[in-house]
Amino acid sequence: MYTLSLEIINRCNLNCSYCYLGEKKNSYMNIETAKGAINIAIHEAKKQYDKTLLVYFIGGEPLMAYSTMKEIVYYVIQECSCYGLLYKFSTTINGTLLTNKIAEFLTNYNFDVKLSLDGPEYVHDINRRDYADKGSYSLIAEKQSLFKKYEIDTGKKISVAHVITRNNYNYFMETFKFLIDSGFTKIETAIDYHCEWPEKEKKELSNCVEEVFKFYIDYLVRTSKEIYWNLFAQYIKAYVTPVCFYFCKAGLCTAYVATDGGIYTCAEIEKFKIGSANIGLNVPKIREIAYAEDKTDLKCTHCVYVEHCKTRGCIAANYLVNKDIYKSVEINCFMTKVFYSLIEKNLTEQQLQNIRNAYERGNK
């Protein structure tokens, strides 16, 4: 599958304190730029084994460019049909702008939907506020019936994304329980790596993570329910199977397109620009990035987890924070060690071997 992330708008109706975009450009992607990017992606999708193109709409808040989203969807269907390609659509939204009409559109075109929700109102509204400094939770709560109808009509579950940062990590456990109690079965936790974490707070964060980790395992055993938690899934997989440097190989089968048509591996960082919608892909640049030499940072050399560490190979995050693709982001390194320690303390070798066998079977 080839994944095309389209930043159809660099503008948002919210002013979240931790937003990775920083100061918004208030720019929109025009339809010709979008078509150029799609044409490139279709060319790449034809090379994939499953002949599938996934178009992921992002922002800003993508629903502020709903009309553009619709045009793109229609164009993707038209062009993929011409080449016998399968297509999929997904988006991440803040939930405040959802209407009956938009929900019906997302349903009709079988979108995968991810909702940004940081927890109960008193947690969510700490960081996810509008430009008048008003919390956004109540606006999302008003749309609950639309989310439920989408899930019933599509048979899909909305996934939820929440951010843990310095002013809300003490609510991690409350947030996690709230999301499960709210019926979410796909939970994506992001630990904010754009800020500096003092040692005292890192220690407190590790205690919070341990509490959630143990609760999660106990919940799965006690209820036999299927709850996906990205951090657990990602760390457990990396722990039981070796991880190569630059493991995601972004740029080879994925691309991120900014509103102006610039194409990047995964984020709008000039060092990782690999083409443009009106010119095409810079293949030598893609190869240079995707097959970057593995130069292990000195402090990583003697780490017992070095062969199973994704942090050191996330070169975009490393460069964004440290301006060095080989220097790991400190909080990400810390979290890797925390999770691996928890895995070792809470899972038996037999359980780990069963997980390892399952991944090996899945790769055959």
From TrEMBL:
Top-rank taxon: Bacteria
InterPro entries (UniProt xref): Aldolase_TIM, MoaA_NifB_PqqE_Fe-S-bd_CS, rSAM, rSAM_sf, Sulphatase_maturase_rSAM
PROSITE patterns per UniProt: MOAA_NIFB_PQQE (PS01305), RADICAL_SAM (PS51918)
Protein name: Radical SAM core domain-containing protein
Family under the similarity heading: Belongs to the radical SAM superfamily. Anaerobic sulfatase-maturating enzyme family.
UniProt keyword annotations, A-Z: 4Fe-4S, Iron, Iron-sulfur, Metal-binding, S-adenosyl-L-methionine
Signal sequence region: none
Gene Ontology molecular function, alphabetical: 4 iron, 4 sulfur cluster binding; metal ion binding; oxidoreductase activity
Domain Radical SAM core, chain residue ranges per copy: 1-231
Lineage start: Bacteria, Bacillati, Bacillota, Clostridia, Lachnospirales
Organism: Anaerocolumna xylanovorans DSM 12503
Pfam families named in the record: Radical_SAM
Cofactor: [4Fe-4S] cluster
